[in-house]
């Protein structure tokens, strides 16, 4: 490897427990995920995850375009439960703006426990019934679009040493569109935006029942795994609202006891101990992200909002962070700061609208991208 080249993550999602439905297995299925390259490079490598699976998963064929992805020289791979597996480096020159397609075929009955649901303008996958891993196009009558990303966890590119990755870590707010909009704003810079987000997750607790398993792993379990990001320099942490809004009492829901409701101090200590200290030990800059308005959400009350406001104040002012991205200020109403601004509420009073996600991306890009040199020309490898 040349001294001016390094591996940098150019795409990534978290891996978590998929939603438990009646059918949890697939057979004779092709999955295909298009990925836009944020910068140029000469080789690619791929990480596949069965982190939350309880059975081995066999990917019978794995391709990027028409090029086989191999594992220790072998075509196909079996992902053992609770593990992640990295491919061999694949010689596959890419240029900034290229869209590559990663396709893999599940031949036999396959447990579909490991994946995550993400949305956004750059996040779209497809599945087809049958073996089409090597096909130029999936058959229209046998394929559909999906926002579930199974097994494929991270793509690295061997690229210029100037390039680096920024990690967006969080829950459903981050599993939705703002990281994709940030990636669009970063396009043409030296920054790749890597999403590590799982809907429903909390900092301090997790659900171990099938009803809420898809709400994902707690922070102490997630963070060490999800921060395996080549070339990362920064992490944005926007997490904690589910710790505040989930508990309702066992008389209402046996899985959501009041004992799960943390104090603000417990949230602060959790962020510092679980996220900030480990991230700093990795040499990363850590950016806090304030929690968004929840006025009108079904479990809203004044006490919860007071917790959110106090936690946000700490996120804005604590010296343990390298800076704060004030997402709350970017989307809240001027006349009623407890609520979203007009047009910025998705309708459930918890998740932002697409316009609001764009505003969140702009707030993050203002802090992390605006001073980064732009490409003057396309680098070739």
**Sequence of strands across the biggest β-sheet:** 8-7-14-4-17-18
Q: Distance between termini?
A: 13 Å
* Poorly predicted regions: 371-381
Percent of residues in helical segments?
Answer: 10-25%
| Helix-strand category | alpha+beta
Average predicted local confidence, pLDDT: 95
In terms of DSSP E residues, the strand content is 25-35%
What is the alpha-carbon Rg in Å? 21 Å
Number of strands: 25
In short:
This protein is an alpha+beta fold. Helix content is 21%, strand content 31%. The protein is globular and about 55 Å long.
Task: Draw up the topology in text.
Blueprint: E1 5-12, E2 16-17, E3 25-26, E4 29-36, E5 41-49, E6 57-59, E7 61-64, E8 67-68, E9 70-71, E10 74-75, E11 77-79, E12 84-86, E13 90-94, E14 99-106, E15 110-111, E16 114-117, E17 125-129, E18 143-146, E19 148-150, E20 152-160, E21 164-170, H1 172-175, H2 178-186, E22 191-197, H3 219-226, E23 232-238, H4 241-245, H5 264-281, E24 285-289, H6 302-317, E25 323-325, H7 327-331, H8 354-368
Parallel strand pairs: 21-22, 21-23, 23-24, 24-25
Antiparallel strand pairs: 1-20, 2-16, 3-15, 4-14, 4-17, 5-12, 5-13, 5-20, 6-11, 7-8, 7-14, 9-10, 16-19, 17-18
What this model shows, in words?
The chain is about 20% helix and about 30% strand. It has eight helices and 25 strands. The protein has about 375 residues and is an alpha+beta fold. It has helices at about 170-175, 180-185, 220-225, 240-245, 265-280, 300-315, 325-330, 355-370; strands spanning about 5-10, 15, 25, 30-35, 40-50, 55-60, 60-65, 65-70, 70, 75, 75-80, 85, 90-95, 100-105, 110, 115, 125-130, 145, 150, 150-160, 165-170, 190-195, 230-240, 285-290, 325. A hairpin with a 2-residue loop joins strand 9 and strand 10. Strands 8-7-14-4-17-18 form a six-stranded antiparallel beta sheet, with no helix packed on it.
């Amino acid at each position: 490897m040349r001294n001016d080249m390094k591996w940098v993550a150019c795409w990534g999602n978290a891996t978590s427990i998929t939603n438990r439905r009646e059918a949890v297995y697939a057979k004779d299925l092709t999955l295909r995920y298009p990925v836009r390259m944020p910068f140029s490079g000469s080789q690619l490598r791929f990480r596949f995850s069965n982190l939350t699976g309880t059975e081995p998963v066999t990917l019978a064929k794995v391709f990027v375009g028409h090029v086989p992805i191999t594992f220790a020289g072998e075509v196909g791979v079996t992902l053992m439960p609770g593990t992640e597996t990295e491919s061999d480096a694949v010689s596959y020159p890419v240029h900034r703006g290229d869209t590559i397609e990663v396709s893999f075929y599940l031949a036999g009955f396959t447990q579909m426990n490991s994946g995550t649901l993400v949305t956004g303008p750059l996040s779209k996958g497809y599945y087809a019934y049958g073996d089409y891993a090597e096909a130029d196009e999936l058959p229209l009558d046998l394929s559909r679009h999906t926002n579930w990303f199974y097994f494929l966890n991270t793509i690295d590119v061997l690229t210029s040493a100037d390039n680096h990755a920024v990690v967006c870590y969080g829950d459903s707010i981050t599993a939705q569109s703002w990281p994709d909009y940030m990636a669009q704003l970063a396009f043409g810079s030296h920054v790749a935006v890597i999403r590590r987000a799982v809907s429903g997750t909390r900092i301090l607790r997790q659900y171990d029942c099938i009803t809420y398993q898809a709400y994902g792993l707690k922070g102490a379990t997630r963070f060490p795994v999800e921060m395996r990001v080549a070339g990362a320099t920064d992490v944005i942490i926007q997490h904690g609202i589910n710790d505040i809004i989930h508990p309702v009492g066992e008389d209402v829901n046996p899985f959501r006891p009041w004992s799960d409701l943390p104090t603000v101090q417990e949230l602060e200590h959790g962020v510092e101990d679980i996220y900030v200290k480990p991230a700093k030990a990795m040499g990363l800059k850590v950016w806090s992200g304030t929690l968004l308005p929840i006025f009108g959400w079904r479990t809203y009350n004044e006490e919860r909002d007071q917790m959110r406001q106090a936690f946000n104040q700490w996120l804005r002012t604590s010296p343990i962070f390298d800076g704060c991205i004030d997402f709350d200020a970017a989307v809240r109403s001027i006349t009623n700061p407890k609520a979203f601004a007009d047009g910025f509420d998705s309708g459930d009073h918890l998740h932002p609208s697409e316009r609001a996600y764009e505003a969140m991306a702009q707030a993050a890009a203002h802090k992390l991208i605006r001073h980064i040199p732009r490409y003057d020309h396309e680098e070739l490898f």
